Every structure is written in structure tokens, then in C-alpha cells.
Amino acid sequence: MTFARLPIEEETYLFDVRMFGQEGFGAIYLIADDRKAIIETGTSWDAARILEAVRAFGLRPGDIDALVVSHIHLDHAGGAGFLLEEMSRARVYVHERGLKHLADPTRLLASAREALGPEESQAFGTMRPIPADRLVAVKEGDRLELGKHVLRFLDSPGHAPHELTILDERTRCMYTGDAAGLYFPGDEILMPIAPAPAFDLGQNLETLQRILALEPKALLFSHYGPHANPKEAIDAMMIAYPAWARVVKDSLASRGPDRVLRQLYDMSCRAAKRYPREFLERRIRTSITGLAAYHERMEHAAPVR
Ligand SMILES: [Zn+2]
Prior knowledge:
The chain is an alpha/beta fold. The chain has a single domain, classed as Metallo-beta-lactamase, Chain A, CATH 3.60.15. It is built from nine helices and 15 strands. It has a seven-stranded mixed beta sheet. The protein has a six-stranded mixed beta sheet with strand order 8-9-10-11-14-15, with no helix packed on it. Helix 6 runs antiparallel to helix 7, helix 7 packs antiparallel against helix 8 and helix 7 crosses helix 9. It is globular. The site of zinc ion has 6 residues, from helix 2.
């Protein structure tokens, strides 16, 4: 198993790392330009498979120059510290707000455990501290030149405050991280992802608007793969995010998590064939927890009359 070329462009490749044992969920991208960049590093469980895929592609791990993480959640940045051991010259590009947590992941791991619960956090793996001299802080507008490809980083809060989206200025494709939700190809499911502790609906909607305004040619989802009709996908997400938030706000206390889960599943996942119901429900549960935390924060932030 290795990286396969995307139809968009000669130097952009996708590897299905089979995150959480599921086909078509964890996308690792490779841009094989003069300099070689990998976008997203999976969980710590995925690192060995990524290294294998790099070798099967005909590169040595030491050939990789840059590891770009869309944000610091464990399923995006967890593999980075482990990959670096073999990728002797690579540096990790990360949002400036997330950098210190990759250098010392203690608090990040504790917060992930709390947000995910014991069973789910096992699947998300762990992290290895990354030495400061191998981390590059990225902020809005920064660019990474690879040769023909230039990556432009965009501050894209909402899913998390340390979320980046990344525009390839050559292909006009946009790496969306988790900023534009989840895409399940084949079943053509588009689903919000709103995790605790820091999901912010207003910011996420602004980020979606911004992605749309840039008129990308395709969206490259971290979960999972290319979507060739960005306007259609973003329009659907602009409806789904507030709709999900409303269901959780209106029904969680009165009807309970299981019925909310079923309602959200019916809203977004009826077409599921390729993806098991149980797998999709796990993703939805993450968002129920995150949306509940968001609403609670909003209530506490409301002005006192
Ligand atoms: Zn993710």
C-alpha cells in the first residue's frame, strides 16, 4: 500500500492510512515536488504505515522535508513525533497557537482523554514531544515553497482555535483539515465535526464562508479525500452545522443522547452503505459532546440582565 496520484495534478498523492481500522477515513497527502511535503500525520498508531507507504513510493523517510499538520488533535498531529525519528531532516509546520502543545503534549493528551473518554482515546493513540528546533510556527498568510507548489496557510478557527486550512496556489486545491467537516466518499455523506473542548459554531461558519470565497478547485478532506465540487460541499455544511447545533440545543436535555444521535444520523447518514453505522455514530457522538460544551460556554458567556 502506498500513495496514489490524485487526478487533479501530477505531484499530489493520497495514502489511505486506514485510520481506526476504517478504509477511507484517514487521508495522508504527499506533494512530491523539489521539496517533499506530507500533509497530516495521522495518529501515533498510523506512523509505521506512513513510513512504509513512503518507502513503497520510492522515497526514503529522510527525503521528506516538511510535515504539515492542519491542527494538533491526535488524529492529525499524533504521528508527527514518531515520523520525525526516521524523517531526519523534516520539520513540522503547525499553527502558532498549537506549537507549544507539540513540544510538550502533556496537557493536550489530558484534554483529549477528557473529551474522548477512555475507550475512544485509546484509538486516538498518544504523542511524542517534538524538539523545538524541529517545529515551525505558522500564522495566517505564511507560505511554504516546495518548488512549483506553494502552500499558503490560512487561520481557520472553529473546529479548534489552532486549525489551519492550506491552499496549494498551483493547483488551487484546499486542504481543509477538519475545518469543513467530514466527507465520506462513495456514500457521499457530508457531516459536521464539532469536538470538545473548543468547537465554536460562529467561527466555523466564518471559516466555511472564507473557504467558499477563495473558490478552490477542489477540497482535500483529511477525512476523507478529494471533493470536486467545493461549492456544493460547503453549502451543505453551512446548513448542516447550524442544524446539528440546534438539535443538540433543543433536544439533548429533554430527549437524551441516544435519540439525538439517531436524529443526527437520520439527518446526515441515511445514504450510508460503505461506512458502518457504528463507525459513523462514533463520529457523531464526538460532535454531540462538543456541541453540548459549546452551548454551555455560550450560556455562561451571555450578558447578565
Ligand atoms: Zn480529525
